[in-house]
Design goal:
Length: 260
C-alpha cells in the first residue's frame, strides 16, 4: 500500500462521517467507499471493499449495541432475522461468482427512486411505532426481509442499510427510529459475512482498517446520540437524504454502464 499522510487522514475523516451517517439511517458507504477509491486509485476494488467492511462493521455493531440499550427491540423477530441475513449474505457472495449483476445495477436507481417517492408521498410513514404482527408471524416476515436483503448485500450491496430500514417501516410497521436500530443488527450480520470472505482471501488492509474503525465508532456514537435524542422524524429526514444521494450515485453508475 503506497499512501501519503494526507490520504490516510482523508479516509479516516471519511470513516468518521460514514459512521455518523450510517448510525442514523444507513448509507455510510456513500462516503467511505468513494473516499477509499479516491485515495488509492490503483488498488484492486476487492481490497478497498474489504477494508471498508473492516472499518464499518465496528461502527455498525457499536450503533446496534447503543440502540439496544435505549430502544425496545423486537428480539423474538430479530434473532431469526439476523441468522437469515447472515445466511443470505453468504449465498449472495457465492452467487456473485455465477450471476451477472449488470441488470441489477441498471434497475437499482429506479427501485431507490420508488422508495423515495413512496416515503415522500406517505408523510406519516414511520412516525409511529405500531408493529403489524407479533410472535411467529412477525419472525417469519422479518426473516424473509433478512434473507432477501442479506442476499442482495452479498451479491451487490449499495443501499443495504436503507433497504432494511424502509422494509422494516413499510412491511413490519416500525417507526424510523426502531427500524434504524433493528437494521443495525441485521447489517452487522451481513457485514460480518462479507468481511469473513474478504479477510480469508487477503483483501483487507488490517492497519488502515483498524485506524478507520476507531474513527467509524466515534462517528457512530454521535450518530446514535442524534437519532435517540431527536427521534423518528429526524431519522426519516436523514433517510430521505441518504436515499436521494444513493439515487444520484447508482444512477450515474447505471448511465455509465449503459453508455459503454
Amino acid at each position: 500500500m503506497l499512501d501519503t499522510p494526507l490520504d490516510t487522514l482523508l479516509v479516516i475523516a471519511a470513516s468518521w462521517l460514514a459512521g455518523c451517517i450510517d448510525a442514523i439511517a444507513g448509507g455510510g458507504g456513500l462516503v467511505l467507499v468513494p473516499a477509499l477509491f479516491t485515495a488509492y486509485p490503483g488498488t484492486p476494488p476487492a481490497t478497498l471493499f474489504g477494508t471498508n467492511k473492516g472499518a464499518a462493521i465496528w461502527g455498525t455493531a457499536l450503533a446496534a449495541w447503543r440502540y439496544a440499550r435505549r430502544v425496545d427491540l423486537r428480539w423474538q423477530a430479530l434473532v431469526p432475522a439476523i441468522a437469515c441475513a447472515l445466511a443470505g449474505s453468504g449465498l449472495g457472495a457465492w452467487a456473485v461468482t455465477h450471476i451477472d449483476a449488470t441488470r441489477l445495477r441498471v434497475a437499482l436507481p429506479l427501485v431507490l427512486l420508488a422508495v423515495l417517492v413512496y416515503t415522500l408521498a406517505k408523510k406519516d410513514l414511520g412516525h409511529t411505532h405500531a408493529p403489524r404482527w407479533a410472535g411467529r408471524h412477525e419472525a417469519l416476515v422479518a426473516s424473509a426481509i433478512g434473507l432477501g436483503i442479506g442476499f442482495y448485500d452479498g451479491l451487490f450491496g449499495p443501499g443495504t442499510g436503507s433497504f432494511f430500514v424502509f422494509l422494516l417501516v413499510r412491511v413490519l410497521g416500525y417507526d424510523f427510529l426502531h427500524a434504524s436500530a433493528s437494521a443495525k443488527l441485521l447489517n452487522t450480520a451481513t457485514n460480518a459475512a462479507a468481511l469473513t470472505l474478504f479477510a480469508a482471501t487477503g483483501h483487507l488492509w488490517w492497519g488502515l482498517a483498524a485506524a478507520m474503525a476507531v474513527a467509524n465508532m466515534l462517528g457512530s456514537v454521535l450518530g446514535t446520540h442524534l437519532a435517540l435524542t431527536r427521534g423518528a422524524g429526524f431519522v426519516r429526514t436523514v433517510f430521505l437524504g441518504v436515499v436521494g444521494a444513493l439515487i444520484l450515485r447508482t444512477g450515474w453508475d447505471a448511465w455509465t454502464l449503459l453508455a459503454l
